[in-house]
Amino acid sequence: MKRSVEDHAARFDAKASEYDDAKSEEYRACANLVIERADPGPEDVVLDLGTGTGAIALALAPDAARVVGRDISEGMMEEARAKAGERGLENVGFDYGTFRDPAYDGPVDVVTSNFAMHHLADDEKREAIEVIGALEPGRFVLGDVMFFGEPDPSAPFFDPSVDDPATVGLLADAFTDAGFSLTAVERVHDQVGVLVAERGPTGTADANDP
Ligand SMILES: C[S@@+](CC[C@H](N)C(=O)[O-])C[C@H]1O[C@@H](n2cnc3c(N)ncnc32)[C@H](O)[C@@H]1O
């Protein structure tokens, strides 16, 4: 971890009111892919980690039974709650929770996370993916800054002082170790991508495996 959870929370609290204003084309493409790939059904519970101002949670709420948003920044979640109220969405809630401890132990069908896990060090990402696997979702859709090749140091997608993106290979291994099968790898940019990981109904990577 380059910064503590408290440091990240304070940083996002400070920029929460402007967070939605300027978003890159790549961020938007990534968020749209996460929303499309999450594809919850009307009975599904979605857990969105690092939910921020609710870009993913609020977009999925009309299609899901319930959306649980978790974040460490109260300022970001205040923005999300305000938008949920404006849109009349009553099946979405936002409360404190970390990747390490999402503070949610109910049933979950789909886990999403967009542009948030790169704040964790690689060993913490592995731990987070283990924690998510233990919740036994059918699907985990991760959109984030991630390296498809050697990162271009002049590219704008991460700030080395606060961000710690992983390689796609490390994330793929972590999914497999946590009992997921990686079913899609979508490259948005050589430093931005969406990974879709799924689990069989028995909690194994593929329930049809012999
Ligand atoms: C760049 S924002 C992304 C927000 C949102 N998912 C989106 O797509 O716009 C990253 C979010 O991750 C949250 N975050 C950072 N570290 C976290 C952690 N360890 N656990 C949970 N959330 C975290 C921050 O507070 C922030 O709201």
Description:
This protein is α/β, with parallel strands linked by helices and 210 residues long. The protein has one domain (5-198): Rossmann fold, CATH 3.40.50. The chain has helices at residues 5-15, 25-38, 55-60, 74-87, 122-134, 168-177; strands at residues 45-49, 66-71, 92-96, 110-114, 139-147, 166-167, 181-189, 192-198. Strands 1, 2, 3, 4, 5, 6, 7 and 8 form an 8-stranded mixed sheet that branches. Strand 4, helix 5 and strand 5 form a beta-alpha-beta unit. Helix 5 runs parallel beside helix 6. The longest helix has 14 residues, at 25-38. The protein starts with a helix and ends in a 12-residue tail after the last strand. The model is unreliable at 206-210 (pLDDT under 50). It binds S-adenosylmethionine (SAM). S-adenosylmethionine is lined by residues 5, 8-9, 12, 31, 49-52, 55-56, 71-73, 76, 98-99, 114-116, 119-120.
> What is the number of E strands?
8
Assigned CATH superfamily: Vaccinia Virus protein VP39
What's the number of helices? Answer: 6
Helix content: 25-40%
Oligomer: single chain
CATH topology: Rossmann fold
The gyration radius over C-alpha positions equals 16 Å
Q: How far do the termini sit from each other?
A: 39 Å
**How is the biggest beta sheet arranged?**
8 strands, mixed
For the record, what CATH class applies?
A: Alpha Beta
Strand content: 15-25%
Shape: globular
CATH architecture label name: 3-Layer(aba) Sandwich
Mean pLDDT: 93
Write out the distinct hetero groups bound to the structure: S-adenosylmethionine
